[in-house]
Design brief:
The complex is a heterodimer of chains A (223) and B (134). By secondary structure, chain A is an alpha+beta fold. Chain A is 49% helix and 20% strand. The chains are: A alpha+beta (223), B alpha/beta (134).
């Protein structure tokens, strides 16, 4: 396995090195689309290698590969964001940026190996893109009353096992699957939402609803 | 979470992080006593990167007989939060925790903490000083 892992690391670093140069807005769209395909192919190889390590109960290494999987997902989403920006699809571009940020955060939670790939600088870059490419966004959030939830790692009632949310276990991040819950129907404006997908998308302006990202008229307002 | 504002037992809600904190305390070898008999109090989950902790109560006898328990509790929570906040910019890492401590004379003092993870480390000293208040 160590030989396979060494080969994998070389292939991984080579493909990453050859494609990170397309993670800039000015790079041509055809190269960026090709880079998405290359990273997606590498993501499959990484997942395959992670499964092999999980079979061998190599927890540290499988968590490292979980981190790398998510780093690749962040690269893919960032590239897709540039493609959508160039295709004038701003809402999808925003969605891709949020996906990139979320994947990078998961990469950090999984293992510190992401730091070797300049993870902190990368986070700052995504933050700068959010602030410079997109107007300020207003986020909302959901409150839910939860009576029962399941641990994603061992499928037992959350809180009765030893796993905790946000920690990696053998190549998987633990999260809660909410089972018995009641939405409180309350939407609150929050500064740090768990998902930046939840945002106010339109605003009323002189009888029209405008798209917040493009300022184009989305539809006539009912007001 | 809403132990002060709830008007009846039916209205009681735990913070969405209560189950996680229970596991952390168990892993740190701390025996915790829930206020309910069965798991009958639901948790309120708010979708946010802010970490909103539960209310932790320290009885006077507990602090007197086992002074380390306050430090152990706060360390268990702050160590977890160091990991949990990874990937979130430092200026956006916001943790909230409520503490109720019983004083030596049997009254109760509460504190609400809101800030970064580093600041949590100051809590044991504050909790002990609350315990010593009359």
């Amino acid at each position: 396995m160590s030989g396979k892992l060494t080969t994998f690391n070389k292939v991984f670093n080579n493909i990453v090195q050859n494609n990170v140069k397309f993670l800039y807005f000015t790079r041509a769209i055809e190269f960026q689309k090709q880079a998405v395909a290359d990273f997606e192919s590498l993501l499959k190889k990484t997942s395959y290698m992670k499964k092999a390590l999980i079979k061998q109960k190599q927890e540290k290494l499988s968590n490292e590969l979980l981190s790398l999987e998510n780093l690749l997902s962040a690269y893919i989403s960032e590239l897709q964001m540039y493609v959508y920006l160039k295709e004038d699809d701003m809402n999808r571009a925003w969605g891709s940026l949020v996906d990139a940020q979320f994947a990078l955060r998961t990469a950090f939670q999984a293992d510190d190996i992401v730091l070797k790939y300049r993870g902190e600088e990368y986070w700052q870059k995504l933050e700068l893109i959010e602030k410079s490419f997109f107007p300020h966004q207003t986020f909302d959030s959901i409150e839910a009353k939860v009576e029962s939830s399941i641990c994603s790692i061992c499928r037992s009632e959350y809180g009765t096992c030893d796993h905790v949310v946000g920690k990696p276990y053998m190549g998987e991040i633990c999260y809660r699957e909410l089972k018995k819950m009641e939405f409180k129907g309350l939407s609150i404006l929050v500064k740090t939402p768990a998902s930046k997908h939840n945002r106010i998308t339109q605003i009323s302006d002189n009888g029209y609803m405008r798209d917040i990202l493009t300022w184009r008229i989305a539809k006539a307002s009912k007001d | 979470m809403n132990i002060i504002s709830a008007k009846s037992k039916k209205e009681l809600l735990y913070a969405g992080t209560a189950s996680t904190v229970r596991v952390l305390l168990k892993q740190a070898g701390i025996v915790e006593t829930p206020i309910e008999k069965n798991k009958e109090i639901p948790e309120l989950i708010l979708e946010s990167f802010d970490w909103v902790g539960p209310t932790v109560f320290f009885a006077s006898t507990l602090i007197t007989q086992n002074p380390d328990i306050v430090d152990k509790t706060i360390i268990a929570i702050s160590d977890y939060l160091q990991e949990w906040f990874k990937g979130i910019p430092k200026q956006e890492r916001n943790a909230q925790l409520d503490i109720v401590a019983e004083t030596k004379t049997g009254s109760y003092k509460g504190i609400h903490y809101e800030g970064d993870v580093e600041g949590l480390k100051q809590l044991p000293k504050i909790i002990r000083s609350l315990h010593d208040e009359r």
